[in-house]
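Propose amino acids for all 318 sites.
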């Protein structure tokens, strides 16, 4: 064996998988979670690939490395990652992490601070097993931004931060339907590519790496809207995407369409739903509150046999 075994716990949040590395991961030293995420990217990419890529993973897998927190009073720190690189933040992953920590007996019902590379979030485990995450401050950077997309013409969207950068498109592009995944993936990949080519970014030049399309809900008694979300790489979010819902809440709030205390029900491509609401912050940003359900569905020990050419995964062809 060339590396110590890794212990992981799998869960899914409204359909989207999370794989928490609970032991065997690297020591990332001290400092902020952003620093630790940088060290993870620079020195431990093989672990990321071993967890998320085939043969152990697949393109939708999101990994979560448990770390010592840097901020006081946090139950843990976490670095999220996928088949491409690290993610800034991940709400479905935080919900999955909370039920995993509860499964391990490390947390109970109540509020728990979790340190992430983009700030502290608060996960509240409720009596009924659902989890609410109070996300990092979120905001809309720009409304109705036009981008020229080959074969589609001008596509308009809002640019918003919800812990990741999003381009949010309403009622344009292919029909948002589970039978239409290839067309949705191709369209949103093209939009992302054109945003990059045309120099349209988030703040500080950060790449807009998530693209979200909205349409009316299938059943208005169950949801207010339905989405398709392209994540970094080629995977789509099986859940309604918590950071994407946060970005949506920021846009609704900026348009005067969502007030504190009101509930927004965001359905995803599988018609599972996250509930969202906003708290207003003095600087005009919002704290999104996103809640959903997750289920632990596996526990594994990964072995690294030095004779196995794919012990560190098969890198995704992106
Ligand atoms: O729920 O925030 C989220 C998320 C980001 C990427 C995949 N899921």
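Proposal:
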């Amino acid at each position: 064996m060339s590396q110590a075994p890794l212990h992981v716990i799998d869960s899914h949040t409204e359909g989207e998988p999370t794989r928490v590395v609970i032991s065997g991961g690297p020591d990332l030293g001290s400092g902020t979670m952003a620093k630790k995420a940088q060290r993870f990217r620079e020195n431990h990419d093989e672990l990321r690939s071993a967890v998320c890529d085939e043969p152990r993973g697949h393109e939708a897998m999101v990994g979560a490395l448990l770390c010592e927190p840097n901020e006081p009073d946090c139950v843990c720190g976490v670095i999220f990652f996928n088949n491409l690189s690290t993610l800034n933040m991940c709400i479905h992953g935080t919900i999955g992490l909370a039920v995993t920590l509860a499964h391990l007996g490390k947390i109970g019902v109540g509020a728990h601070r979790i340190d992430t590379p983009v700030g502290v979030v608060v996960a509240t485990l409720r009596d009924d097993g659902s989890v609410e995450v109070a996300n990092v401050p979120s905001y809309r950077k720009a409304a109705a931004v036009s981008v020229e997309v080959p074969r589609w013409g001008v596509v308009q969207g809002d640019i918003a931060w919800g812990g990741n950068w999003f381009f949010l498109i309403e009622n344009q592009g292919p029909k948002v339907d589970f039978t239409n995944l290839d067309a949705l993936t191709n369209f949103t990949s093209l939009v992302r590519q054109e945003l990059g080519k045309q120099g349209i970014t988030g703040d500080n030049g950060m790449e807009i790496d998530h693209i979200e399309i909205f349409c009316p809900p299938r059943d208005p008694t169950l949801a207010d809207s339905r989405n398709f979300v392209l994540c970094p790489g080629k995977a789509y979010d099986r859940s309604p995407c918590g950071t994407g819902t946060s970005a949506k809440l920021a846009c609704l709030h900026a348009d005067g369409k969502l007030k504190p205390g009101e509930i927004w029900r965001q359905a995803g491509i599988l018609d599972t739903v996250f509930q969202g609401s906003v708290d207003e912050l003095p600087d005009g940003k919002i704290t999104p509150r996103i809640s959903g359900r997750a289920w632990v569905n596996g526990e594994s020990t990964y072995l690294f046999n030095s004779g196995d050419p794919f012990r560190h995964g098969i890198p995704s062809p992106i």
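The longest helix spans residues 181-197. Residues 202 and 208 are 6 Å apart (CA to CA).
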